[in-house]
Each structure stands twice: as structure tokens, then as C-alpha cells.
């Protein structure tokens, strides 16, 4: 391998690494945004007013069917040119808004599936016990709706982490951007981009394992209690 | 003559184009035990679901302890009840479901304690004490820390009863509570209902297919057929001496 140089590799490594904080930070910011906005979608779709539900469903569908890259470009380049409401946003803010909004529509679906997965009888029993709307949600519905969604939400975190490099196209200085400018400066792309790939692998692979463990634990949730208690029950 | 605890006044209920209940009139006295029998699809369950506010009547009034359940007074006019009004009136009613509907993420004890603590604002100690008493009464004092998934159907249904009883309702509704159980587990559940019935203070409405049980426990039996109360009276009047043909053929299927 004539082209590979460990010298360049070690020279580029700290440079690329400088972008890691931004990449991880942007991922977390996007994720937080989409977790919150996903809730807003879910809520709006549950408001008992049909026309609003249709509009919300249609907007979600629109956001999901257009590429995130187009959305990013629109927010960063086109938004400032929109009359009245248009404004110039920093690359980071644009990326949080664009990617966060895009993924919030998926997160909203995850929430919805979690809530719909709770048996209708649970609502009826809560009502028969005269729990308030707030208590129903907090004590009965959400504790059952959330755990099954955790593995899915974790998967979206990893997916988002891998989509975040899109933000380098509007100038967010993450690891991909750092690698690219290093490459442009020294005409050496192989090593810095390899470093980018390694960094992504090192971060997302263990996370994926963690999530699949979590998933298994969630699936075993009730069985576990069962074995724990039946051994106890045997003595009584 | 005591005031009825529950009154239905010309109550109709439609699902889409299908009218399930076609004018129900009914008085239930405090502490009265009423069994509702009839073929499936006759609207038995709908009657008690409307009383539990799980279904809204299409027309007519349901009065619970002197208060109109589904309507409230607003500036001298009767309007549809809001959630606040429903919560006020609903507090007098408890229900046990065919499929138990226990909260799977809570222990048996927590299942019973949740409503007293959050709805009745009892302190935790009192709620716990009452719940344990009630669970002992249904014979599950040794299962307090178990989860619903660890219990048999009969045990689950007994927990569901304890959970409803601990709220001290004035009217208790039983919606085919033995229908989802294996035959050998039906007895233990009926036995608990019988015990509760003996204590007497609470009115009970039982939608059931257990004819012998209805005969034994109920002061009054209603035969519901095609959306109306086709026959009513004491258990022996209705089940043993009625001349209503449809009732006779309905009963024959159970006796066979």
C-alpha cells in the first residue's frame, strides 16, 4: 500500500478528533429536539378535532417523504429569502432544526405505537377507578407505553448519529468537515476519511450492542419478575 | 319507600345505525342485587358500560344517587356533562371487567392502592391497610407482592374485585366476570361475589350467564332481549315461572 501513510494518519487524527465534540453535540441536540417535537406531533394527532389531525398527518408525511438534505438546504439557504418569516440561522441551528424536525416525525410514530400498544381495557379500568386524565397518563398508560419504545428510540439515536454528517454540507464543523478540509489542504483524503469511519464505528457499534441488550431486557421484563417471585412464592 | 340508587329513564343507545338499547326503564334500590341475563348482543353489557361512563347514551337519562350522570346544570339548562361532573358522579360506581384489566406493571397490592391514594387522597398507610384487608377477604393475602402475570385467571379476577371494592362504591357492576375463566376457576370467583352480596350494603348489577348463580344471589332478574327489558321480577319468577317464550328458549339452551 503505497498510498497509505501512518504519518498522515497520526497527523490527521487530532485534527479530525477536534470535530467530534460538534458531531456528538449536534447528534444529542437533534435527538433532544426530535424527542420533544415527536411528542408535539403525537399530541396534535390526538386532539379530538379531525381537520387538525388531517393537517398534522399530512405535514408529517410531507416531512418524511422529502430528503433531509433538501430540508437542510432549504432551512439554511432558502429560509432567509422567504419574506416576512424568513431569517438567517447559523449552520448548527439550521442542522438541529432540519434534522431534528425530520426525525421528530419518526419519533412521533414510535410514541404513537407505544400508546396504541396499551390495551383498551387499561383505559377503561382507570376510568372505572375514577382516575383523572393526568393520573391515567402518568400512572397507568405511560408506564406501559414507554418501556417497549426504548429500544426503538435508541435505534433512532444511532441512525441520527450517522445522518449528522449531512450537516457538513452547510458548514457545521464536525468530524467529516474536519477530515474534508484536512484532505483539501494536504491533498490526503484516505487517512482522514478512514479516521472518520473508525470514529463512527467505535461510537455506534457499542451503542447498537447496548440497545439490543436493552431490547432483550425489555422483552424479559415481566418474565423476570415471574421467576423472581415464584421462587419466593414456593415457600408460602 | 327508599329512593332508588340508580334510575334509567327511557335510555336509548345506538352504535352507528344499529340501535342496541331501545328504551330502558329501570330502578335499582340501594343494596339491591340485580342480575341481567339475555342472549349475546341484547345490550346487557352496554347497560352497565353506560353506567360506568364508558359509553354515552344516545338519549334518555341515568340518575345515580339523585344526580344526573350524563347531564349537568349550566345556568339553569341541562347540558352534556363534562369530565369534572362525570368524575363526581362516577365515584359512586365500581366495575369488574370480563378480562380483569389489572395493571400489569404494578403488584397486586399496588393495583389496589393506586385509586385510594390518588382519587380518594387517602394517606399511603391507610390505603395499604384497606387494600390488604380487602385482598385477604378475597383470599389473596399471600400474593400482595406478586404481579398479575403470575396469577391464575380466577385469582386475577379476585384482585380486580378487591381493587374495585376498596373504593367503597355504592353500586358495583360485574361484566360477565366469569366468561373468560377456565371452568374450574369459575367457582372461586362466584364464591367471592356471593360473600360480597351477603354483606349487603352495596347495590350490585351482574351481567352473567351463570343462571343458577343469578337465581341464588339476585333479588331481581332482568331478561334483556332485542334491546328492551322483556321480563323482570324476582329470580324465581323470571327464571322458573315466566311464560315468555323467548326467555324459555333462552333458558333451555343453558339447561341442556
UniProtKB/TrEMBL annotation, chain A:
Segments forming domain ABC transmembrane type-1: 20-211
GO cellular component: ATP-binding cassette (ABC) transporter complex
Transmembrane segments: 20-44, 56-79, 85-103, 156-180, 186-211
Pfam families named among the record's database cross-references: BPD_transp_1
The keyword Transmembrane is annotated on this UniProt entry: yes
Matching InterPro entries: AA_ABC_transptr_permease_3TM (IPR010065), ArtM/GltK/GlnP/TcyL/YhdX-like (IPR043429), Ectoine_EhuD (IPR014341), MetI-like (IPR000515), MetI-like_sf (IPR035906)
Topology within the bilayer: Multi-pass membrane protein
Locations listed in the record: Cell membrane
Entry keywords, A to Z: Amino-acid transport, Cell membrane, Membrane, Transmembrane, Transmembrane helix, Transport
Designated name of the protein: Ectoine/hydroxyectoine ABC transporter permease subunit EhuD
From TrEMBL, chain B:
Main location group: membrane
Keyword tags: Amino-acid transport, ATP-binding, Cell membrane, Membrane, Nucleotide-binding, Transport
Membrane topology: Peripheral membrane protein
Family of this protein: Belongs to the ABC transporter superfamily.
NCBIfam families recorded: ectoine_ehuA
CDD domains, per the entry: ABC_HisP_GlnQ
Gene Ontology molecular function: ABC-type amino acid transporter activity; ATP binding; ATP hydrolysis activity
Pfam families: ABC_tran (PF00005)
Coiled coil in keyword set: no
Identification of the protein by name: Ectoine/hydroxyectoine ABC transporter ATP-binding protein EhuA
UniProt organism field: Oceanobacillus jordanicus
Residue span(s) of domain ABC transporter: 6-251
Superkingdom of source: Bacteria
